[in-house]
Design a protein that fits this description.
Blueprint: H1 2-27, H2 35-40, H3 55-66, E1 91-92, E2 102-103, H4 110-115, E3 119-125, H5 130-133, H6 136-146, E4 151-157, H7 167-177, E5 183-185, H8 190-195, E6 205-210, E7 214-220, H9 224-242
Parallel strand pairs: 3-4, 4-5
Antiparallel strand pairs: 1-7, 2-5, 3-6, 6-7
């Protein structure tokens, strides 16, 4: 009898345990995911923070992943070289007439010199003029650099004072000053006044005459910038002639 009661008691305990398990499963089925569900669940592990990172930076990265930046192509740099402005024509040059002769040349006229050259630089000067003397080094450099390229310098000597009209004095002064280019003797200053219209003529005054007898440069005075510009204009005109 006692053994029967013991068996019945054990059976009741087992049935009670089964009932508890069934009741728990039925009451909250979502709290017990299956092994398959657990395997498919995404990981929520966070990366360690990096100094300087922020939420904004993370959002920017996400946005970059969602919408890649379009490929930008930097256009190749283009270089344009504008041709220099042509040297203007300022008028037609006069001839040299009523001269008392020439020094440092066998030529007998400006036309003869001009026909033998591409450009002719004509300067009105006199050897006693202090301002004229300041220009002679620049003219000498120009003459040395361009003589073999078809450029001739002509110094039209128009005396200011009587002693400057003496031919021997002119020859001596030219040698001392290093004037080796042709000198036209305008003793009466006729050409000095014809070329320089108006009541006033200037020592020095310099011109560039091209092969067509056109004036391409006209400046007065002894400024260094004037003779730098003279040199540069000769270069430009020669480049245009050879282009």
């Amino acid at each position: 009898m006692k053994s029967s009661y013991a068996r019945y008691g054990a059976l009741l305990i087992v049935l009670a345990g089964i009932a508890v398990i069934v009741w728990t499963a039925v009451a909250d089925p979502d709290t017990s995911p299956t092994l398959a569900e657990a395997a498919d669940a995404p990981s929520t592990e966070l990366s360690p923070a990096v100094p300087g990172d922020s939420g904004d930076a993370m959002e920017a990265s996400a946005a970059d992943d969602a919408a890649p930046s379009p490929t930008t192509t930097t256009p190749a740099a283009t270089t344009t070289t504008e041709p220099p402005e042509p040297v203007p024509v300022l008028g037609t040059a006069f001839t040299l007439s009523r001269l008392d002769g020439w020094l440092n040349t066998d030529a007998t006229s400006l036309e003869e010199i001009r026909e033998q050259n591409t450009l002719t630089v004509v300067q009105f000067w006199t050897f006693g003029c202090r301002n004229c003397k300041k220009t002679l080094d620049a003219l000498g450099q120009l003459h040395a650099d361009f003589r073999d390229r078809g450029v001739e310098v002509v110094g039209v000597h128009a005396p200011e004072f009587a002693y400057e009209a003496d031919v021997d004095n002119i020859i001596e002064a030219a040698a001392e000053l290093g004037v080796v280019w042709p000198i036209a003797l305008d003793t009466t200053k006729y050409n000095f006044h014809v070329w320089q219209e108006g009541p006033t003529g200037y020592w020095p005054r310099v011109y560039i005459i091209d092969s067509e007898n056109q004036i391409r440069f006209d400046r007065r005075g002894d400024g260094a910038h004037t003779y730098r510009e003279l040199y540069a204009t000769v270069e430009r005109l020669l480049a245009q002639e050879s282009a």
